[in-house]
Amino acid sequence: MHRGTTANQRSRSSCSGSQNGSCTLSNALRGVYLNRELMKSQFSAWVLGRALDVSISLSRRGEVSGAVGVASMLFQGNRFNRAIEVVHVLPAVLKTGYLKVIIQDLLSPQAPGSEPFSKWPFGNPLKLLSLALYHPWAWNAFAHAYDLIPEPTLAKLKLNSEWMVFQASTSPYAEAHRDVLERGNEAIVLLCDNMKHHEKGAEPLIAGCSHSIMQCSRCKSTVYCSPECQKEDWAIHKDECAMNRIRRIDLLADSAWISHRTRARMLKLIGTRLQNRIDSAELLHSPGLIPFMDGTKYPPGYQQINARSFRGMQRGGRPIFNGRSEAMFDLFADKSDQFELAAFKVELGQYYVIALALFRSLHAFAQGEIEISSINGSKRPEVQRTLRALEPLTVYTLYFNVYDYHVDECRTSASSP
């Protein structure tokens, strides 16, 4: 991330004499971290809107440097520093024209020797945008802004290398989010946090089910399809209820609480990504390894990591996983032929969030020997498994403060599929 002085100098260089109005707005944002009240009042969106008005009225056709000056200072860094920026500020500025400013600057002629987005002091805004699009609020606003892009502009974007990288980076999110936007409630995965739900002969909690969802009345952090499932889960939930209540209150104050609806969308997103890899034979079942998706990278990273080593991660000498996540690991370890466990890491402002998702395989594994030719022409037997469908069961989210702890890549014997 560039230092503030560098950002100031680069921002000043983008201001022209005919755009003093928009540059004044940009200067107002420079070095000022908007407080919670201004963020929630959509002040940033108002500032961007005024900058666009000034740019249109004072600039020659195609010039948007004044709006770029403001848009480039809305987020102070190469990542979102606070959760409120992801869930409130970004959706608001996307509705105002943030994506339009990015695209116009990307497609504008570049000065000889300059790189794309050279006027953005904190780097590529498409990279920043991609880090938030796992969140449904950010994606919904982005999808609306994308639908407003004229066809001739879309044709140019499809030939632009920076845009192609952005599209590839966000494609893991696109299918799941768009399915919900197009099909509504029919595409929403319903949650039941009782990990023994599937043993009760109940319907799979998939799109279109009519289960009446209920939540723990005290902590409001767990949801169930029935009183029976809630009672059965009490063996796990009794040890976490009080702490979850405190955690939820703290996270709500930071605009970082992931609602049950958002949690369900994340489960669908992870499931869609895994199912696509299974259907294309990119993901083969390997006992002891779990798929790990890293949404903090651009493009998102993907690998299979050692479940035992991942489970043993510690913070300050204490395990990072609690009783509920331990129960998910246990179920996967005991019945890995019936279940799939996956992890998804994202940033939510000042927090890292790890979503631990559990799925049940609806098709049994078929093992047998097949002949595969090696490089030297010899043949060796391999274990084969049938393609299978995944039934989403539950997803659990864990939070870690970005500024005092980094959930780095697991020091495991990881293997890439």
Automatic annotation (TrEMBL):
InterPro entries reported in the protein's UniProt record: Znf_MYND (IPR002893)
Residue ranges annotated for the MYND-type domain, each copy included: 206-241
Residue ranges with Low complexity bias: 8-20
PROSITE patterns: ZF_MYND_2
Keyword Zinc: yes
Region entry Disordered, spans: 1-20
Gene Ontology MF terms: zinc ion binding
Keywords: Metal-binding, Zinc, Zinc-finger
Keyword Methyltransferase attributed: no
Source species, domain of life: Eukaryota
Protein name: MYND-type domain-containing protein
